[in-house]
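Record format v2
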Amino acid sequence: MDGRFRLNEPQVTAKVMDGEAVIIHLGTGVYYSMDGIGCLVWEDIAAGSDADAIIDGIASRYGVDRDMARADIGRLLGELVAQELVVPSLEAPSTVPAGAGLAAPATYTAPVLNRYDDMADLLALDPPLPAAPR
Amino acid sequence: MDIAPLFDAASTSFDVAFSRRGTTVHYLVGGRPVRVRVAGPALAGEVDLPLSHLRGGTDREPEMTVDLWSEEETGVAAILGAPVEQVRPFGQFTISDDRRYLGEQRPSGAIWYDRERNRVVGSAVGLGRRALDERARPFHRMFCLWLSGHGIQFVHAGLIARQAPDGIMRGMLFVGVGGSGKTTSSISCFRAGLSYLGDDAIGLERTDSGFVGHSLYGSCLVDVDHIRRFPDLEARSLPPRNDFEQKAVVYLTPIDATRMAARVPIGAVVLPRIVDRPDTIFRPARKGQALLSMAPSSIMSLPIVDHDAMERIAGLIDSVPCYWLELGRDVDAIPGAVNALFDTLDPVNGAEER
């Protein structure tokens, strides 16, 4: 996974609170959470960092092998794209240093995207619509 | 489906029905005046039961009007978008492209909402066909959409309240996915004498002095397996009548109107969860966990997304302490734990956490 990504708005709404990213896909009714490194990655995406900067920032901050960080974070980015939570962005990457998010955990553990589909069936027939027509 | 002509046709038919057998009641929903006119005395009684604790506002110009008639009681044909046989058991929504008009069709009838005129008009085809969730929470999604336009956010939560030693009522919001124990916690506290504002649907409003929770309905929907643990409520419940209904309705205002409250400041967000232990305890919860428990079902339950919803909910969670409430096997022990938690919030104890 290379390049820069952005939140898949308006289908997706998200908020980071207390080290946890809560992400809702309004089109599918599935929602997600990430804490730890995953939350940090989410903050970096929202801040406009590209994939290389995120990987470098986290590898540097936690003193972990860059190839391992690339594998872990690349896998996470792949999941975020596959779940349509983020989409590729053509905008220029942010100059804000990656890996500096407030949600930074003390130690490195491989990021995990938690997926919850308990509302998906309920919303399958009548998913909520965006406030204004696109 | 073009909703505007259906709305207009329903409006015309309502006038005829109302001239035959009409009743008008005023309520304060989310603190805002709503006029409800119902043609058909039995239907009027059904609609009033879960709203009666909110009666008031007769001296104010209504900001929302709801007009409903009973085909059975008035002889005026219902205005339906599709034949009732083709409508899904839990109903279905139709929304105009410009989001001005909404239609909610049920096997029991249809209601049409013009958001520009703040008016709902609709009809019921047969009293016995109204689903229990319609009876417990009439006009639920229409009210919540209307309130969101006034900054009042629907939250999928229960809310109970207790008066603090300083005389101020303070509320405790129970949040979580279905089956987490919101309703069990809310009705256990009601039975123990605490004030009740709802078990599943609450209006959340940010004010200058903090967040307040508004009661929307004085009813509860209780899983049939759980209501057996509350025999006093089971005796007064309307049980499910078909395979699509799994919860019984209990109207709480007729049981004790003095324990029904319309709005309270929210003092804590509480995440119930059922655990295998004899007693019930509380302990601090992370705010991120509270957001995860509260935001998805609150935001996705309405037919049109309010893009400010996440920030409103996060604002509440950021402003009050959050706790796990681990519900043990003895439901009668729940109010004791909740009262102990209220004690920690009371200013006299000086232990309010943020």
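Chain B is about 30% helix and 30% strand.
Residues 275 and 328 of chain B are 6 Å apart (CA to CA).
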